[in-house]
TrEMBL record, chain A:
NCBIfam families: gcvH (TIGR00527), PRK01202.1 (NF002270). The H protein shuttles the methylamine group of glycine from the P protein to the T protein. The modification N6-lipoyllysine is found at K57. Keywords: Lipoyl, Mitochondrion, Transit peptide. The glycine cleavage system is composed of four proteins: P, T, L and H. CDD domains: GCS_H (cd06848). It is found in: Mitochondrion. One of its GO terms (biological process) is protein lipoylation. Pfam families: GCV_H. Residues 16-98 form the Lipoyl-binding domain. It comes from the Eukaryota. Its cofactor is (R)-lipoate. This is Glycine cleavage system H protein.
From TrEMBL, chain B:
Keywords: Acyltransferase, Mitochondrion, Transferase, Transit peptide. InterPro entries: aa-tRNA-synth_II/BPL/LPL, BPL_LPL_catalytic, LipoylTrfase_LipoateP_Ligase. One of its GO terms (molecular function) is lipoyltransferase activity. It comes from Bambusicola thoracicus. Its EC number is 2.3.1.200. Residues 57-243 form the BPL/LPL catalytic domain. It is an enzyme of class 2 (transferase). It comes from the Eukaryota. Belongs to the LplA family. Lipoyl amidotransferase that catalyzes the transfer of lipoyl moieties from lipoyl-protein H of the glycine cleavage system (lipoyl-GCSH) to E2 subunits of the pyruvate dehydrogenase complex (PDCE2). Unable to catalyze the transfer of octanoyl from octanoyl-GCSH to PDCE2. In vitro, it is also able to catalyze the transfer of the lipoyl group from lipoyl-AMP to the specific lysine residue of lipoyl domains of lipoate-dependent enzymes but this reaction may not be physiologically relevant. It is found in: Mitochondrion. This is Lipoyl amidotransferase LIPT1, mitochondrial. Pathway: Protein modification; protein lipoylation via exogenous pathway; protein N(6)-(lipoyl)lysine from lipoate: step 2/2. SUPFAM superfamilies: Class II aaRS and biotin synthetases.
Length: 123, 373
């Protein structure tokens, strides 16, 4: 699993990346009440806004960690947006996408690097 | 606009983007207070977008003051059919806008003031902002019984909502905006914020209704100008800046390059209605025709504001079945919109013989259909 500095994660398997938000992000957001996700087939560039999560705290934009095309969205979130809080790394995944430029993965943080990153910004 | 005691000036915002306020070299307490010269809800929302996208708020936070002529503003993920009386709004020429922040539906008119607090994402702090507002109001009128709730509302006399809050977190910046009722038209507010539409099922974020009151009712001497000024004064004090308000014209491309495209986008049907989360309508209505009462059952699925699927259950043979099938076919894929429905039903009617009875029945059905939208 790799992380962005915007607290999204992506996990690639068989050329398909699953995207979600980190535990740090879901805690900071508070209870998610609505997930706005893109249509399947949407083409995204790295750092493009692909949707938003609305929580009691605010409407918060989501940014694509990589360049690729959306192949699937988590339909369970429509009726159960709280899954993002309860299970941000498993059942609360947001979208799945193709990985058009695998080199972009190298630009993302490893789990260790991400842990260090969040410690540094918490100060 | 009447200019009051605070010093106001018009300056290119681009100048203020680059040069920090003199005398406060890079301190995090820097700030800028701007006020819109426009009362157009779309232009003002566009200013928020522009500041959010273009301004660097590391060393300087921004307070934006604005008022709108009558408009209903829904939250980013809301369903306008669930939240307000669109027919009444059309009659009264009250605009509908969808903002980019979350939260619920509010009514704006010139008796309501809007405050937007821009900060970096890190410095985002709604409670602090609202405490600032309460402090400002109490400095103006110490006897006011107001406090901030844990829902980030400001409540008067322990029971009346005078302010609601919403917010947006972006890449590097954040904003928190809130309303403040000074002297808004409560009768219009109540009537437009009551939805007449039945049978709607949706996972859109709902509003939390509240009893409201105007500050003017507590003290008839209060005006919007006074409230704006009081908040600006408190903000200036807390940020260590001059009580100086910069006026901006939200249509001026030299000050805000690209602003007009932003306000145009906020006015598109695709944004205002098309962004409505998927919903279904399952309802029935009665039609009185000559001596009989007819029950009609309608089921529709609406996605991106367009009718994805449609079923109209009418008494058999009341209208030619082929015509009804054509209506359903035409509605599928069209906007969930009274104008569009009226247009396509007129087109279909022209394919029919000039039969008075057929035409009256058709018009009756179509009037009832458009009333659902």
């Amino acid at each position: 699993r790799k992380f962005t500095d915007k607290h999204e994660w992506i996990s690639v398997e068989n050329g398909i990346g699953t995207v979600g938000i980190s535990n740090f992000a879901q805690e900071a957001l508070g209870d998610v009440v609505y997930c706005s996700l893109p249509e399947i087939g949407t083409k995204l560039n790295k750092d493009d806004e692909f949707g938003a999560l609305e929580s009691v705290k605010a409407a918060s934009e989501l940014y694509s960690p990589l360049t690729g095309e959306v192949t699937d969205i988590n339909a369970a979130l429509a009726d159960n947006p709280g899954l993002v809080n309860k299970s941000c790394y498993q059942d609360g995944w947001l979208i799945k996408m193709t990985v058009e430029k695998p080199a972009e993965l190298d630009e993302l943080m490893s789990e260790d690097a991400y842990e260090k990153y969040i410690k540094s910004i918490e100060d | 606009m009447v200019l009051q005691s605070s010093f106001k000036s018009c300056l290119p915002l681009s100048c203020l983007l680059r040069a920090p306020r003199a005398g406060f070299g890079g301190a995090a307490s820097g700030g800028l207070i701007i006020q819109s010269l426009s009362n157009d809800v779309y232009q003002n929302l566009a200013v928020e977008d522009w500041i959010h996208d273009h301004m660097n708020l590391e060393n300087r936070q921004v307070l934006f003051l604005w008022r709108n002529s009558p408009a209903v503003v829904i939250g980013r993920h809301q369903n306008p059919w669930q939240e307000c009386n669109l027919q009444l709004m059309r009659q009264k020429n009250i605009k509908l806008a969808r903002r980019r922040s979350g939260g619920g539906t509010v009514y704006h008119d010139l008796g309501n003031i809007n405050l937007t607090f821009f900060t970096t994402r890190k410095k985002y702090e709604r409670m602090e902002n609202l405490k600032l507002v309460v402090k400002a109001l109490k400095a103006l009128r110490p006897q006011l019984d107001i406090h901030v709730t844990d829902r980030y509302d400001i409540v008067l006399d322990g029971q009346y909502k005078i302010s609601g809050t919403a917010a947006k977190l972006g890449r590097t910046t954040a904003y928190h905006h809130c309303t403040l009722l000074c002297n808004a038209n409560k009768a219009v507010l109540s009537s437009v914020l009551k939805s007449p539409y039945k049978g709607l099922k949706s996972n859109a974020t709902p509003s939390v209704p509240a009893s409201v009151k105007n500050l003017f009712e507590e003290d008839p001497g209060l005006t919007c100008e006074m409230l704006l000024d009081a908040v600006a004064e408190e903000y200036a004090m807390q940020h260590g800046i001059d009580h100086h308000i910069t006026l901006i014209n939200p249509t001026d491309e030299t000050v805000l390059p690209g602003i007009n495209d932003k306000s145009k986008e906020l006015q598109t049907w695709e944004w205002v209605y098309g962004k409505t989360p998927k919903f279904s309508v399952s309802t029935c209505f009665n039609m009185v025709y000559k001596d009989s009462v007819l029950d009609v059952k309608v089921d529709m699925d609406v996605k991106h504001g367009r009718i994805e699927a449609c079923d109209i259950d009418l008494p058999q043979e009341w209208l030619p079945p082929a015509l009804c099938r054509e209506l359903v076919k035409s509605l599928t894929g069209s906007k969930f919109c009274p104008n569009e429905t009226t247009a396509l039903s007129s087109i279909l009617l022209r394919t029919c013989p000039q039969d008075y009875e057929l035409h009256s029945k058709w018009n009756l059905l179509c009037e009832n259909m458009t009333a659902l939208m």
